[in-house]
Amino acid sequence: MAEEIESRVLLIMTGGTICMRQSPNGFVPARDFQEHCLAPMPAFNDKSPSIPIEVINDNAERTGHEVKEYTSLRTPQTAYGRKVRYTVYEFPELLDSSSIDAKGWTEIAETIERNYTHFDGFVVLHGTDSLAYTCSALSFMLQNLGKPVVLTGSQSPMLELQNDATENLLGSLVVAGHFMIPEVCLYFNNRLFRGNRCIKVAASDFAAFESPNYAPLAVTNSTRTNVNWEIVRRPRGIGAFGIRTDLDTRHVACLRIFPGIQPEMVDAVLRLEGLRGLVLETFGAGNAPHGQDNAMTKVLADAIGRGIVIVNVTQCLTGSVSPVYAPGMSLSRAGVVAGLDMTTEAALTKLAYLLAIPECTPESIAKDMAVSLRGELTEISQPVFRHPDGELSERAQTLTMLGYAIARGDLQRVDVIVKMEHHWLLNDADYSGNTPIHIASTSPSLEVLEYLLRQGGSVHLRNNQNRTPLFMAANAGMGEHVKLLRQSGAHLHSDERAAAEVLAQRRPEIWGEAGLHE
Ligand code: ASN
């Protein structure tokens, strides 16, 4: 019998309209969101007994961590047959998001890091004003992310009669609790976007965000949330989850070109003390006036010579910067980096992220600005191989073929099949809920497991027996597989620890290797 699987999601409350109440000074963030806004609502509380959930906090002196028990709530069963258990962790200071900065981003990233192995996914509640910046910043800060991180907020507070907060939060919980989308995403008005592709486009409409250069990762309609798996990004490579913090937002700036802008004005910005990076918002495909006697181009080239990185993004909502016109060409000859189809938000936070890396140089930053680190820009398109007809029944056949090839340890065959149907195959599950990584966790060939991990297969999915690939590898006594899975960020799920403790009585070493005592 398949066990009832309950997902665990941590809600991180940073502030924003979603939790606000009226005050004599206008709307301000209010505390106790779980108790006041969620507990009374049937969609967020199935009235089952509350189980305490451990959340790891910074202690008051910020010198270490402390584990605190929080009361949890559970949703009723979703359309996907799961219930989502969650708890709300509130930041000590709740903000209107117009006041968030790199310190707040660090706080979010550290909260996710401290609690990473205890939850299946994370939902960050945040004001909408600077939400696109926070999404972009976090996408760079979270490295080898293997679980969904969904940011959301609302245009109208949860306690207002007519609001968008309920839908936005419920949709985010469903995504974080059910779908292995290991990206920093933004869920708003029934659509899930890649976070670093978003911009805020409306001050009060419910449709507050757009992702002009990248299709939504998922869309919710009246019956379900349809994920566009083909365009979901997955970490490729062997590496455990980690974070980079303290983005350098103090030494970057952003300047919008306008007709008649004077080179002296641009020069004055470029001579700001300590400036290390500038995002230049230009016209169309990346054009700017070159100024009398090329004065503007010279100002830019001089600054680049002084070690300042200048990135060219377009003022247009859609399209990419490319040197097709003479003015754009001369910017690129002067050493200005083409930001392709990055949003200003992504370009600015990416610059701040790269500048915070101790070993960075202006050359390394310029190089990284022009390539996709987290799917924030479109590089040249990759060829896609497909079956001539991708019927659904074929899907099961292909997965079965792949399962046999993995179980035989036939790397060549695995490679052929994965190349044919890469986009959906890796995290798909067979009749017993096993994904290719589950099968590979006991495959005779370690190379097959490594290959699938490098293609972006998830180490966190659980099968119908509630087991992760790591559990299966340890149970089968496959020590090398256990090591490789651990290097890739795998950990035992809290629901399988009790069984692991029993099994560890007979084989303590391998279960120790699997991280049972951590
Ligand atoms: N000022 C609010 C904020 O960004 C706007 C909102 O959340 N809708 O915190």
TrEMBL record:
Q: What is its EC number?
A: 3.5.1.1
Q: Supply the InterPro entries for this chain.
A: Ankyrin_rpt, Ankyrin_rpt-contain_sf, Asp/glu_Ase-like_sf, Asparaginase/glutaminase-like, Asparaginase_C, L-asparaginase_C, L-asparaginase_I, L-asparaginase_N
The GO molecular function terms of this record are: asparaginase activity
Signal peptide interval: none
What positions does the domain L-asparaginase N-terminal occupy?
8-232
Stretches forming ANK repeats: 432-464, 465-497
The Asparaginase/glutaminase C-terminal domain covers: 251-365
Give the record's family classification.
In the N-terminal section; belongs to the asparaginase 1 family.
The UniProt entry, under PANTHER family, shows: 60 KDA LYSOPHOSPHOLIPASE, L-ASPARAGINASE
The protein's name is asparaginase
Q: Which organism is it from?
A: Aspergillus ruber (strain CBS 135680)
